[in-house]
Design brief:
With 575 residues, the chain is of the alpha/beta class. It contains 24 helices and 19 strands. The strands form 5 sheets. Strands 7-4-10-11-12-13 form a 6-stranded parallel beta sheet, with helices on one face. Helix 14 links the parallel strand 11 and strand 12. Helix 4 packs parallel to helix 5, helix 12 packs parallel to helix 13 and helix 16 packs across helix 21.
């Protein structure tokens, strides 16, 4: 048997399922391994803003490759494995020393090609970082903000992301806390300021020109950072740790693999942004800006380590709350804080989750972490759903695509194979919804991404789209749980050669979701959905409502005041 772990072709059903089982087994050993690895560095910020230290499995490939190595070792036990193709030389070298001599191991990249690819990747990341820092710095200085006096009382800062489409006219439309400020009185909004991070912005001058016309409360880091701060952040390319030791993981000698993964992830935008946010906190203190609360969009990534460390260090009187307004896969390991991070000052005072069932996962590796519940802003429409869902003719399928281009292609290919390229088969209708930050033009060039004739690219309100769907296909997205609450069964596309990124909690009724590793799996799900009866629709809707109660807290004025620290301020004023 030949095993391809490069991702060029999908794993079979059994192999994909086994890889997911291995990932579940390796989560705790891997987290403990990374924690031990970082112990010698203490609170060194340059270490903690790396994807490896953050366990950011999107940016650092180490966890995925360790899972692949264990998968290969298990499949080789019965002697049926003859050849393995892996992506990189270090993984190939590790497997040659761990597998029986009869198994041939081949790397898709030669050592020279890997070095060239890594060097080019580092150069590209440095150029992108230089362009982003330079563009933001120049735009902020050449287009200075109008002088506006800040309120005398301490501020509440809300960390979020600034997209090119976030500014419409003279208003800021936030994607991550929709409707939050509308639940506050005018006097309460006066002391609440957005502190957004520009994301995927190319035209910095156009963005800052529109920012200066915005009438909402916005504090931009670029208006406070100095040239030395940008140099410090970009200097991470030179200061990044390269002295990682040879070490053992579950009987595997992983030193070369560790250094290889560190090199591939070095100098990313998250590391630069984390260092800039740390300096932003310093500059606000020097400017005399007083804070009573910071609400940080919190994924515990590199950027969060830098930002939280800055808020705690330079604004010790402010309460820092990390808001998790989304659902994440258990394999997105940065989401689960560590005791070491709390001890060293890289975690917020409290992590705010959207519902009671999300509290325990936050404490999985950090039992002492304070966890509170907060409004589920992006899911608030789930509390205004119609009571019933009408049955449609045929089967309407809604595919929600992730941000990653390779994963988009995988889902589209799986759909095409499952439908045999004939959208009229069985009355199936296919709508494809791209991620809001994904370049829509790539999808509109159907041949490039693999879209089939007759498929429809859709956008707009997700709840309305789900209400018209009979089956939802997605991966690594909170939208999968969104669909379940609507009573729409979900297919989670399994990873090709990586653990599946499934955001649906394992306690959710398995009748409402399944992981599909192959097109045959997806075809079976479509056939089963086409044969469902009216009783099933009612049963799924009821089960979805129960999921909503456990995962999501509705947005109310009282809940918003609690999150922003305004209820405490009102109580203190009354006293």
């Amino acid at each position: 048997m030949r095993l391809d772990l490069t991702g060029a072709v999908g794993l079979g059903r059994e192999q994909g399922a086994l890889l997911d089982v291995i990932a579940a087994e390796l989560r705790r050993p891997y987290v403990e391994f990374v924690s031990r690895l970082g112990a010698p560095y203490g609170a060194d910020l340059d270490w903690w803003v790396t994807p490896l230290a953050s366990r950011n499995t999107y940016a650092c490939p180490l966890f995925r490759r360790l899972c692949q190595a264990v998968l290969a070792r298990r499949l080789a036990v019965d002697g049926s494995l003859s050849e393995i193709v892996v992506e990189t030389p270090a993984l190939a070298g590790l497997l040659r020393g761990a597998l029986p001599p009869g198994v041939r191991v081949r790397a898709a990249l030669t050592p020279l090609r890997w070095r060239l690819r890594t060097a080019l990747g580092l150069a590209r990341r440095f150029a992108a970082g230089l362009y982003a820092c330079g563009g933001r710095c120049l735009a902020a200085r050449l287009l200075p903000p109008a002088r506006r006096a800040l309120p005398a009382e301490p501020l509440t800062l809300v960390d979020t992301f600034l997209y090119p489409e976030s500014l419409r006219g003279d208003r800021f439309h936030d994607r991550h806390y929709p409707g939050m400020l509308q639940l506050l009185a005018e006097d309460e909004r006066r002391c609440v300021f957005w502190a957004p991070v520009p994301y995927r912005v190319r035209n910095h001058f156009g963005l800052f020109r529109r920012l200066r016309a915005c009438r909402d409360n916005i504090l931009m880091a670029e208006d406070h950072l100095r040239l030395a701060d940008y140099a410090y952040a970009l200097g991470h390319f030179l200061r990044g740790r390269r002295d990682l030791p040879d070490c053992d993981f579950l009987g595997l000698r992983v030193g070369p693999l560790l250094r290889e993964a560190q090199a591939e992830a070095r100098g990313g935008s998250g590391s630069i942004e984390g260092l800039l946010r740390h300096r932003f906190a310093l500059r606000l203190r020097e400017a005399g800006v007083r804070l009573q609360r910071v609400v940080e969009w919190f994924e515990n990534q590199e950027v969060d380590h830098g930002a939280v460390s800055g808020w705690l260090t330079f604004h010790p009187d402010a309460r820092v709350v990390g808001y998790q307004g989304f659902l994440a896969s258990p394999n997105y390991l940065c989401m689960f804080p560590l005791d070491a991070e709390r001890r060293l000052g890289f975690l917020p005072h409290a992590v705010a989750v959207m519902g009671p069932a999300l509290a325990d996962p936050v404490r999985k590796f950090c039992p002492g972490q304070e966890v509170v519940t907060a409004p589920a802003f992006r899911f608030d429409a789930l509390w205004r759903m119609p009571a019933d869902r009408p049955r449609h003719d045929g089967v309407a399928l809604l595919a929600s695509l992730p941000l990653d281009t390779a994963e988009c292609r995988q889902i589209i290919e799986m759909l095409g194979e499952a439908l045999d390229g004939d959208v009229s088969h069985g009355g199936w209708q296919v709508c494809v919804k791209p991620h809001p930050a994904f370049p829509r033009r790539l999808l509109e060039e159907g041949d490039r991404m693999g879209l089939r004739p007759g498929w429809t690219i859709v956008g707009g309100d997700l709840d309305a789209l789900i209400e018209e769907a009979d089956l939802f296909v997605g991966s690594a997205s909170s939208a999968c749980v969104h669909a379940i609450v609507h009573g729409v069964p979900v297919v989670v596309a399994g990873g090709r050669a990586r653990p599946t990124l499934n955001t649906i909690p394992d306690w959710v009724d398995c009748e409402l979701w399944m992981v599909c590793h192959t097109a045959e799996d997806l075809r079976e799900a479509l056939v089963r959905q086409a044969r469902c009866d009216a009783d099933a629709l009612v049963r799924w809707r009821t089960a979805g409502a129960a999921v909503r109660e456990r995962l999501f807290r509705p947005a109310t004025p009282a809940a918003v005041r609690e999150l922003l620290g305004l209820s405490q301020r009102a109580a203190e004023a009354a006293a």
